[in-house]
Amino acid sequence: MKPPRKPGPSARKGPPRTGARPLAPKKGTIDAVSRPAPPKKPQPKRPAPRKAAPEPAPRQPAHSKSADEPQRIAKLLARAGVASRREVERMIAEGRIALNGEPVTTPATLLPSLKGLTVDGAPVAETETTRLFLFHKPSGCLTAERDFSGRKTIYDILPKDLPRLMPIGRLDMTTEGLLLLTNDGGFKRQMELPSTGIERTYRARAFGTVSQAQLEALIEGVEIDGMRYGRIDANLERSTGRNQWIEMTLTEGKNREVRRVLEHLGLTVNRLIRTRYGPWELEDSPPGALVEIKPHDLERFQRGLPKRK
To answer: Considering its fold, how many domains does the chain have in total?
Structure first.
C-alpha cells in the first residue's frame, strides 16, 4: 500500500509567507478585468517661467552731472578757462558777460551750456584739453589778472601767445617760487581743495630764534586767533646768524598760512619760496621761466586724483 502524498506548495493554505510577492493575474482572467486600475495622482502644475527683468540702467555717481544739466554760469566759464569763479563774478558786475546779447546780471544764472555766451563781445569757446604750466614767479609781482593801482602782475611777465591761463593757488607779491597755471577751471579748483590732499612745500628765511621741537609740534596743527591750521611738517634746515632757514610742507594752503604760523612762533619772515606743488618741483629754473607739462604726464597725474565735484 502506497503512503499518502504530501501536499506540495500549491496546496498550502493560508496567506503567503512574509516577504512573498503575490502573483499578478494573467491577462484575460476575471480578476484582470474586474479590478479597477489605481487612480493616477494629479501632477502639480508647474508655474510658467518668469520673464527676465530688464537690467537696470547704470547709475551715475552722486557727484556727476549730465552735459545738459544746468550749472552756474561762473562754474561753466571757469571750466572753460575764461577766469576763476571769483573773477567771473567781478566780470558780471562790470557788465562784460552777455547771454544772447543781453548782459548777465547775476552769477547765480543757471545754464546748460556755453551757447550764446560772450565775454567782452567775443563768443566763449568750448572747453579745450587741459594744459598745465610751471611758472617761476619772481618776487615783486601780483598773482592777479590786473591791478587797479598799476602794480606789476604775473601776466605782465608771461608770454603773450599763451592761452587763457589761471593760477592754481596764489603767491603773495613778495613770495616767489613755483606757481602752477592751467586753462581748466575745474582742474584748478580740484588742485586747490584741501580735501584733495596735495602737498605744497615752502622754504622760509625767518629772523628770530626757534627750536626743532617747536617746529615738530606743528605736526598736530595749530590754532591762531580762532583760525585752525592743519598738519604742518616743519624742519629747521640751517641758521645764518639770527636768520633761520625752515622747510614747511602743508596741504591746506590757507591765506598767508606759512607767514602767520611762523609769526606765531615769534619769527619774522623776510623771504619765502615755494619749491614744490604736488609732484612738481621748482628745481634750478630762473625767475620768470615757464615750462609746460607733457600731456601724457598730466593725464597720468589726473587719473590718480579724486573725481571732480
So the answer is: 2
Query: Choosing from 172, 233, 284, 297, which is the catalytic residue?
Result: 172
Q: Are 126 and 115 in contact (CB under 8 A)?
A: no
CA distances from 215 to 85, 124, 209, 246, 262 (A): 36, 48, 11, 9, 9
173-202 average pLDDT score: 92
Q: Containing domain of residue 191, as a range? A: 132-303
Between CA 67 and CA 140 the distance in angstroms is 42
Separation of alpha carbons 176 and 185, rounded Å: 23
pLDDT above 80 (res 84)? no
Looking at residue 255, the DSSP 8-state letter turns out to be T
Does 11 reside within a domain? no
User: What pLDDT does residue 277 have?
Assistant: 97
Q: Does residue 202 contact residue 247 with C-beta atoms inside 8 Å? A: yes
Residue 116, C-alpha cell as written in the block: 550764446
Mark whether 155 and 291 lie in a shared domain. yes
* pLDDT at 87 > cutoff 60: yes
What's the rounded Cα separation, in Å, for the pair 237 and 245? 5
**pLDDT for residue 45 is more than 60:** no
* 18 belongs to a structural domain: no
Cβ–Cβ under 8 Å, residues 243 and 207: yes
User: Do residue 204 and residue 247 come from a single domain?
Assistant: yes
Q: What is the mean pLDDT of the chain?
A: 82
Confidence check: pLDDT of 233 > 50:
yes
In a domain, 160, yes or no: yes
Q: Residue 267 is placed in which grid cell? A: 619769527
Cell of 130: 587741459
172 is catalytic: yes
Helix spans in the chain (H): 30-34, 73-79, 85-93, 185-192, 212-216, 257-264, 295-303
Domain boundary among 123, 154, 188: 123
35: confidence class by pLDDT, cuts 50, 70, 90:
low
